[in-house]
Amino acid sequence: MMARVAFRNVVRHRLRTAFTVLALSIAVALLADMLMLSRGMEKTFYRVLSSVGYEVRVCPRGTLPFATDAVIEESGRVTEALAKDTRVERTLRVLGTTLHVDSLPLFAMGVDGERQSLYRVVEGRDVTMADGAAEILLNQNAMLALHVAIGDTLTLQRDAPGTTMAFSRGLTAVVVGTIDIPFDLPGQRTAILPLASVQELRDQPDAASFVLVKLKGGDEDHFVPLAEQRDVAASLATAFPDLSVYAMDELMDALQRQLAYFKQFSLILSTISLLVTFLLVAVVLTIGVGERRGEIAALRSMGFRRRSIQAMILSESALLLAMSAVCGSVLGWFLAGYLDHILTQSPSLPAGYRFFIPAWREVLTAVALSGIAGIMAALLPALQAARIDIPRTLHEEVV
Amino acid sequence: MSFPSDYLRWLLLVCLVAGTATSALATAHIVLETSLAREYHLAAGDTVQLRLPGASASAPFVVSGFYTPPPDPAGISRTSRQAWMPITDLERFSGRDDRVSRFVLSLAPGANADSLVEALNSTQLGFRAYRSRDVARESSQTFVVISNFHKAISFLSILTGAAFLAAIVLLQVQELRRSLGVLRVIGISKRSIYTLVIGETVLLANVGAAAGVGIAFLVSRAVNSYYRSYFDTTLIFSSIEGWHVVLAFGIASVVGVVLGSVATAYLFKSEINEVLGR
Amino acid sequence: MSAPNDFLIRAESVAKTYRMGSTLVEAVQNVDLRVARGEFVSLMGPSGCGKTTLLNLFGCIDVPSRGTLHVFDEDVATMSERRRAELRLRRIGFVFQRFYLLPMLTAFENVELPMIEMKIARSERSERARSLLERVGLAHRMRHRPHQLSGGEMQRVAIARALSNQPDLIIADEPTGELDRKTGASILALIKELQIGGLTVIMATHDPHAAELGHRVIEMEGVSA
Description:
Number of domains of chain B: 3
Radius of gyration of chain B: 32 Å
Number of strands of chain B: 7
Helix content of chain B: 40-55%
Number of helices of chain A: 12
Shape of chain A: elongated
Number of domains of chain A: 2
Strand content of chain B: 5-15%
Mean pLDDT of chain B: 79
Helix content of chain A: 40-55%
Oligomer: heterotrimer
Number of helices of chain B: 9
Mean pLDDT of chain A: 85
Strand content of chain A: 15-25%
Distance between the termini of chain A: 31 Å
Order of helices and strands of chain B: EEEHEEEEHHHHHHHH
Structural class of chain B: alpha/beta
Largest sheet of chain B: 5 strands, mixed
Order of helices and strands of chain A: HHEHEEEEHEEEHEHEHHHHHH
Low-confidence stretches of chain A: none
Shape of chain B: elongated
């Protein structure tokens, strides 16, 4: 019955309750979104990294993949040494560069290796990796921009068109397929060629931007345990002191430093959301108790125990929080999509990257945390209500 | 494996010589980023050894000074360090003659930058020219996105605050309903009661705004202090300006007027007797 | 002559002092009174003479500062707050000047309220609430909320509520204070009816006509400053 009394109290003032629930719902929604932000970035990073399918990355010292123009000058030596390591299943060398077709720049990656999962062939076939093969794969953006189809021939230049073209290295290649790459930036035009072709165009015969390493023990969908990855990375770092070697989590840590701001932002806003929830419930209930002192004193004079009065106030808090939880969960879900849409406009992010990944786990965590904050906020007003001075209050109500 | 924090750009690798100059054979000079001086306890006159990636031999360079580059938002997460030397020294050292990444042009007073850009781009010399402001705009896109994100969060915060204030105003008005009912009974005009409630609400909202501005100043200082330390930069991450303060009080006043009016109108919908509790 | 356990209330030299800021106010001084079972006692006196304070003491809402007060043969001063609440719930019914009905509950639910605290089964309390409202003449207004009732009707609901846990004692503080004469008379008639039915009633009132309903009228003088 006290729950029914609490419900009646809550709905007695519909407009006030509506505003309270609105404010609490936004607080719950923001908390849920910040939890999604915090976890979403990690999840997406890991998903993008793991879609490439390699556990270890070997880069020029002090760099991250494609972060600079630095290259591994003798990459063949590195892959030979890696091939002798019994823990290594296969390697893939990648050399990135900008090539031009007429005046249109393309980001090109030269790759080698028998099998690779760096990109997915959507149409056509993969390039053959034999030296001298003049074949090229293009992503959809490049196909559309160049107005080409599978089977067409392209002339690629290292340098932009102009009077220096006569001195610029060039290559004619046949388009053999269309590809999809998970970490392409929005609108990016990407091409895949055999490594040797790109090395020749760059006049760097043994260069690679980085080497991807697949370890034995995992498969296409699962990686070897992180501890083993770190082990291998550490021993490779010792063997190649001029290079930087990263296991998956180490790479994630390095990349996430660049997104440290968002993690901290999410922590700060989460804390503020909880604080708002706490304050709102505390203020609303405290003022509510104040305006119902006469009723509460009458209940106490009838013999209602302090515990019953406390239960009534706590029930009101629980009701407000329950309503806010439902509204806040729905609002948070849609808000996540909106905020994600804003942030993914950033030009330097892969097209498939997401900041917010709607997930019920985060929503339920937000609801639980808000619930705890709200109930804690209700404790003091509940205590105050239970300790009302009955005779004094009854006297004040009459006067 | 702990991740090292010291590394330079791909063109330069620094092998440190502990403190003392071995400058007898070193004739090339280099200016290093100031943070390197702090980390490696370097001073002007010290000699450092530079080595290209993959090369076994290194060359000595004398540190002629230190420079703190202007804070660049695009570079706050940069973990590499910078160094400066005469271009001829770099060409000789790297073995890449007559090659640069870009030219930066300073124009004569009154020169038209747009026409120069157009002329350069039409010459087909194998490069493209851009106005600095266009480069700045392009490279700022990420910060525009972050700014939009902040605006979205700000809007939600204002909405939460307004809803919070509305709930409290309605609570206050309900608590005062008997007093307000008595005022009406004795003939005080609705206008006066509106003025009373709206005045109180606006005052409450502006007191909240003042507290909020105060908290914002403190938080802004804390944010700047923390992120400057975290990213080792002198960038200003957060800044409370005059118009922010005006906006805060403006929004508080508008919200106060609107909510006070709505709450009083809501109260006047009740009959006097009900308001007086009969 | 009544035996000691026939007296529901036994007060000896009871006094109550309140602190108002830095001042000590003696609301009630040297009260010696016994109220027998089934008796109707009226308390009369000017405003501020301590009627409500005395009713609060008899109703175990408050404890005396001095003297001894036994209610249902239990010493109020030594009772725990929990025990006093239990007595108020089980054995005492209150009727206030301002009714103190919960505005968001119907008349029926207001009468049910004390029975719920007593954990009486739903069917029994529904039956009892219905019966009480019929008894006070409000069977047709059970589902109405207080703001839909007249003053007299609200006080009837309050009386029904006071009777819901079948108390031995009714304490009424100015039950007709907010009512017109005619309505007040009907309320007083109802209270008298309850007393005739076996309940003990202690009522505070300004109205001499109301006071005359009691077996005894106790005139209270204000405590001198």
